[in-house]
Amino acid sequence: MSETPSLTRVWFMDWHGRVLSHDPIRDDFSPAPFQPGIYPGLSALVAFPLTLPCEVTLEKRVSMPRLLPELEMRETPQGFVCLVTKKHNTYLISAPGRGGILTNSTNLGEWEQLLIMQQDFMRGLSTLMVPDKATLIDTQNDQPLSPLQLSSGFVGEVNGKRLSLKRNLQAIEHLGRIPAGQTADLTFHEEDEKSPMTVRIQRPG
Fold first, then answer.
1. Which of 115, 88, 116, 118 shows the shortest CA–CA distance to 102?
2. In this structure, are residues 73 and 83 in contact, taking their beta carbons and an 8 Å threshold?
3. 3-class DSSP state for residue 119?
4. pLDDT tens for residues 11-41?
């Protein structure tokens, strides 16, 4: 029996570890730092299980009159997604620094790629980044781990260990479902390392 798709709200992270957001002053796209516990200013309702390509309508958290372009979501060769304008067939690009977010890119490169984030993923990522939310212990040596810090290329760094956010998507989503007061051992995969690491997550009650 085939699974019936359900609508799920998603957000997007860019190559630089920022989120796709909305500036209500300019009423336009805006990149913003990932802030634990705070949802970005732009999101989308999409059908899950996700079938690509598909049409996607971005929704502003603060309602403003300017219309956003009609977009199609496509999968990239690296397994991420990109947003393409239906009118001009150009890519949404999130440039570093003050480059901002534009929709006129003609080439699919690193800055045009996005990581889809569901609510459980955002909760889990927030937990990894905020010391008060959880204690992280490396079970191999029983040593505490530092809070996760985001870096470019959809990577989080913990004690010098580079964790691919995409490769660890399920573990991070699982963490987002662990209630306060609970402890769980989760498996994470380092970039370019074959052996996974097990992290004991202790959520304060």
1. 88
2. yes
3. helix
4. 999 999 999 999 999 999 999 999 999 999 9
Residues 6+ apart with CB under 8 A from 99: none
Nearest Cα residue to 81 out of 38, 119, 51? 51
How does DSSP classify residue 133?
A: G
Q: CA nearest 31: which of 41, 47, 18, 15?
A: 18
- For residue 71, the number of C-alpha atoms closer than 13 Å in the C-beta half-sphere is 23
Q: Buried b vs exposed e over 131-160: b needs ≥16 C-beta within 10 Å?
A: eebbebbbeeeeeebebbebeeebbbebee
Q: What is the pTM of this model?
A: 0.93
CA 115 to chain centre: 5
Q: What is the pLDDT of residues 145-191, one digit of tens each?
A: 999 999 999 999 999 999 999 999 999 999 999 999 999 999 999 98
